Amino acid sequence: MRRSNYDLRPQIEVPGTAGQAWEGWEAVCAELRRALAAARGSRGRDRVVLVVEGSTGLLPEVGDQLQRLLSPEVWIDATEALRPAPDIERVAAPWLGGDDPLFGFLADPSIDSYLDPRRVTAIRARVTAARGVVVVFGTGALRCAEPDILVHADMPRWEGQLRQRRGRVPNLGVENAGEKASLQYKRSYFVDWRMVDGLKRESIGRWDYLLDSTIENDPRLVSGRAVRHGLEHAAHRPFRSAPTPRAGPAPAPRTAIPARASRGPSWRGPARPSPRGRAARPTPGTAPAESSA
């Protein structure tokens, strides 16, 4: 019987990045402590700020281990800056397509629509008044402090979906762990990931480190320089992602979907108010079959 030569775990070797990756919580936090000490010494200040901006789907382990091993003088969870859950539901609702398991709209609002400006201001004041090592952790942390060291705690979407199915993680800004996994996935696809992607795009050029906690209790830390160099290297050669095929949920019965030709441009849906005061027509779509994208 002929053995398949299909590579289920593709990798790309990135030249010139030796010594820029760390494995395990002890090594990860030792490198962060070194970087914090260097930043504090070079700036000659009595306060140094580590911002750990995060994707959705992180387990409590990440914050617990960072807090335990870094032992900062001040630890601030960015969830303190979020609006109350009912307000977040009102922001998300227009994009979710009701209870339909597939149909929704790609969200236009940024993470700022989930944050309470007064709470953000209060956290910033706490950071300014603090002394020693200050850590601000979680999605939206970058809005709450100016970092001396910036870490992005990433989470692959496929692993995030698996954790949703197990009822281990909620969506952004709400306590819905254990909700029907297809609805959690749809909310992630149309809303959460759009907000997180916006944070990534605006901050990737500033990352000092990327933290990968995909494997529970076995994290990896990579320098931001190595991440950017790796992306540049991969973009100039063939590459592919690891295959994780899975069928998506079946759509709910729909009674009347008019053809585009008979309705003209209005098939795209009614205009919805935009947080920036203009009319925004959200593009309808379906959450694709779950994947590692």
> What is the CATH C-level name?
Alpha Beta
Which fold name is given in CATH as the topology?
Rossmann fold
Assembly category = single chain
Structural class given helices, strands, pairing? alpha/beta
The helix tally amounts to 8
Which percent band covers the strand fraction? 15-25%
Radius of gyration in whole Å, from Cα?
A: 21 Å
Strand order in the sheet with the most strands: 1-8-7-6-2-5-3
| Distance between the ends | 33 Å
CATH architecture: 3-Layer(aba) Sandwich
Q: How is the biggest beta sheet arranged?
A: 7 strands, mixed
Mean pLDDT: 86
> How many domains is the backbone divided into?
1
Unreliable stretches (pLDDT < 50, length at least 5) are 255-282
> Considering DSSP H and I runs of 4 or more, what fraction of the residues is helical?
25-40%
Element pattern in H and E = EHEHEHEHEEHHEEHHEEE
Number of strands: 11
- Tell me, briefly, the overall form: globular
Topology (elements, then pairings):
Blueprint: E1 21-23, H1 25-43, E2 47-54, H2 60-70, E3 74-77, H3 85-92, E4 103-105, H4 117-129, E5 132-137, E6 149-154, H5 157-165, H6 181-203, E7 209-212, E8 220-223, H7 224-234, H8 260-263, E9 272-273, E10 279-280, E11 284-286
Parallel strand pairs: 2-5, 2-6, 3-5, 6-7
Antiparallel strand pairs: 1-8, 4-11, 7-8, 9-10
Helix pairs in contact: 1-2
